[in-house]
Amino acid sequence: MGIMADSIATYAQPLLDETDGSHEQVQKAFSIAMLCWNLALQPEQELEDSLARLRPEFNMNAAEFTDFFESVIQPMIMRHREMFPHMSRLASGGTAPRTRKEKYPGTARNAPCPCSSGKKYKRCCGR
Fold first, then answer.
1. Which of 6, 15, 58, 122 would be 126's cystine partner, CB 3.0–4.6 Å?
2. Residue 106 banded pLDDT, cuts 50, 70, 90
3. Can you tell me whether residue 6 is helix, strand or coil?
4. What is the Cα–Cα distance from 126 to 56, expressed in whole angstroms?
5. Cβ(33)–Cβ(26) under 8 Å?
6. DSSP per-residue letters across 65-101
Protein backbone atom coordinates (compact mmCIF):
# COMPACT_ATOMS: atom_id res chain seq x y z
CA MET A 1 0.00 0.00 0.00
CA GLY A 2 0.97 3.61 -0.42
CA ILE A 3 1.66 5.97 2.46
CA MET A 4 -1.84 7.49 2.33
CA ALA A 5 -3.54 4.09 2.34
CA ASP A 6 -1.32 2.98 5.21
CA SER A 7 -2.19 6.15 7.14
CA ILE A 8 -5.92 5.64 6.63
CA ALA A 9 -5.70 1.96 7.60
CA THR A 10 -3.78 2.87 10.76
CA TYR A 11 -6.29 5.59 11.56
CA ALA A 12 -9.22 3.17 11.06
CA GLN A 13 -7.62 0.37 13.12
CA PRO A 14 -9.72 0.85 16.29
CA LEU A 15 -12.89 0.49 14.22
CA LEU A 16 -11.47 -2.45 12.28
CA ASP A 17 -10.61 -4.20 15.54
CA GLU A 18 -14.31 -4.14 16.46
CA THR A 19 -15.36 -6.09 13.34
CA ASP A 20 -15.64 -9.83 12.87
CA GLY A 21 -13.49 -9.52 9.75
CA SER A 22 -16.33 -9.95 7.28
CA HIS A 23 -16.21 -7.87 4.15
CA GLU A 24 -19.43 -6.07 5.08
CA GLN A 25 -18.23 -5.05 8.55
CA VAL A 26 -14.79 -4.01 7.33
CA GLN A 27 -16.40 -1.83 4.65
CA LYS A 28 -18.69 -0.29 7.25
CA ALA A 29 -15.73 0.38 9.56
CA PHE A 30 -13.81 2.08 6.74
CA SER A 31 -16.89 4.13 5.81
CA ILE A 32 -17.26 5.36 9.38
CA ALA A 33 -13.52 6.05 9.56
CA MET A 34 -13.67 8.15 6.40
CA LEU A 35 -16.68 10.03 7.73
CA CYS A 36 -14.78 10.81 10.94
CA TRP A 37 -11.69 11.76 8.92
CA ASN A 38 -13.73 14.29 6.94
CA LEU A 39 -15.43 15.63 10.07
CA ALA A 40 -12.03 16.10 11.71
CA LEU A 41 -10.95 18.32 8.82
CA GLN A 42 -13.87 20.70 9.26
CA PRO A 43 -13.56 23.90 11.25
CA GLU A 44 -15.03 23.54 14.75
CA GLN A 45 -17.87 25.98 14.03
CA GLU A 46 -19.08 23.83 11.11
CA LEU A 47 -18.85 20.48 12.87
CA GLU A 48 -22.14 20.78 14.75
CA ASP A 49 -24.05 21.70 11.59
CA SER A 50 -22.53 18.75 9.73
CA LEU A 51 -23.49 16.37 12.52
CA ALA A 52 -27.06 17.70 12.54
CA ARG A 53 -27.30 17.06 8.79
CA LEU A 54 -25.83 13.56 9.19
CA ARG A 55 -28.09 12.32 11.97
CA PRO A 56 -31.06 11.38 9.71
CA GLU A 57 -28.72 9.29 7.52
CA PHE A 58 -27.97 6.97 10.43
CA ASN A 59 -31.64 6.22 11.24
CA MET A 60 -30.99 6.81 14.95
CA ASN A 61 -32.99 8.75 17.48
CA ALA A 62 -31.32 11.67 19.27
CA ALA A 63 -30.14 9.57 22.23
CA GLU A 64 -28.69 6.83 20.01
CA PHE A 65 -26.90 9.36 17.83
CA THR A 66 -25.49 11.15 20.88
CA ASP A 67 -24.16 7.84 22.17
CA PHE A 68 -22.70 7.02 18.74
CA PHE A 69 -21.09 10.46 18.59
CA GLU A 70 -19.55 10.14 22.05
CA SER A 71 -18.39 6.53 21.67
CA VAL A 72 -17.25 6.49 18.02
CA ILE A 73 -17.17 9.81 16.18
CA GLN A 74 -15.62 12.01 18.86
CA PRO A 75 -12.82 9.54 19.74
CA MET A 76 -12.03 9.10 16.04
CA ILE A 77 -11.90 12.88 15.53
CA MET A 78 -9.50 13.13 18.49
CA ARG A 79 -7.44 10.28 17.05
CA HIS A 80 -7.19 12.15 13.76
CA ARG A 81 -6.03 15.31 15.54
CA GLU A 82 -3.39 13.34 17.43
CA MET A 83 -2.15 11.42 14.38
CA PHE A 84 -2.26 14.34 11.94
CA PRO A 85 -1.78 17.51 14.00
CA HIS A 86 -1.00 19.74 11.03
CA MET A 87 -4.22 18.80 9.26
CA SER A 88 -6.20 19.53 12.41
CA ARG A 89 -4.48 22.89 12.85
CA LEU A 90 -5.69 23.93 9.43
CA ALA A 91 -9.21 22.73 10.21
CA SER A 92 -9.28 24.74 13.43
CA GLY A 93 -8.62 27.98 11.60
CA GLY A 94 -4.85 27.89 11.25
CA THR A 95 -3.34 28.98 8.01
CA ALA A 96 -1.56 26.99 5.40
CA PRO A 97 1.46 28.37 3.63
CA ARG A 98 0.04 30.37 0.77
CA THR A 99 1.52 30.99 -2.61
CA ARG A 100 1.87 34.47 -4.04
CA LYS A 101 -1.03 33.84 -6.39
CA GLU A 102 -3.31 32.85 -3.50
CA LYS A 103 -2.25 35.67 -1.18
CA TYR A 104 -2.35 38.57 -3.62
CA PRO A 105 -3.71 37.43 -7.00
CA GLY A 106 -2.16 39.26 -9.92
CA THR A 107 0.79 40.66 -7.96
CA ALA A 108 4.06 40.36 -9.83
CA ARG A 109 7.22 39.58 -7.88
CA ASN A 110 8.84 42.93 -8.64
CA ALA A 111 5.71 45.04 -8.12
CA PRO A 112 5.30 47.19 -5.00
CA CYS A 113 3.89 45.12 -2.17
CA PRO A 114 0.10 45.50 -1.71
CA CYS A 115 0.60 45.83 2.07
CA SER A 116 1.93 49.37 1.48
CA SER A 117 5.33 48.70 3.05
CA GLY A 118 7.10 50.40 0.16
CA LYS A 119 9.14 47.27 -0.57
CA LYS A 120 8.99 45.05 -3.61
CA TYR A 121 6.50 42.24 -3.18
CA LYS A 122 9.26 39.58 -3.42
CA ARG A 123 11.11 41.19 -0.48
CA CYS A 124 8.01 41.61 1.69
CA CYS A 125 4.82 39.50 1.74
CA GLY A 126 5.99 37.36 -1.19
CA ARG A 127 8.56 35.56 0.95
1. 122
2. low
3. helix
4. 47
5. no
6. HHHHIIIIIHHHHHHHHHH-HHHHHHHTT------HH
Closest among 119, 96, 97 to 107, alpha carbons compared: 119
Torsion of CA 100, 105, 109, 110, to 10 degrees: -150
Going by pLDDT thresholds of 50, 70 and 90, the confidence category of residue 97 is very low
Question: Per residue in 31-61, pLDDT tens?
Answer: 999 999 999 988 888 888 888 888 888 888 9
Look up residue 100 and give its amino acid: R
Distance from the first to the final alpha carbon of the chain? 37
Closest CA to 18 of 71, 80, 74, 78: 71
- On the 0-12 / 13-18 / 19+ scale of CB atoms within 10 A, 80 is buried
- Domain ranges within the chain, ordered by starting residue: 3-91, 97-127
76 alpha-carbon distance from chain centroid: 12
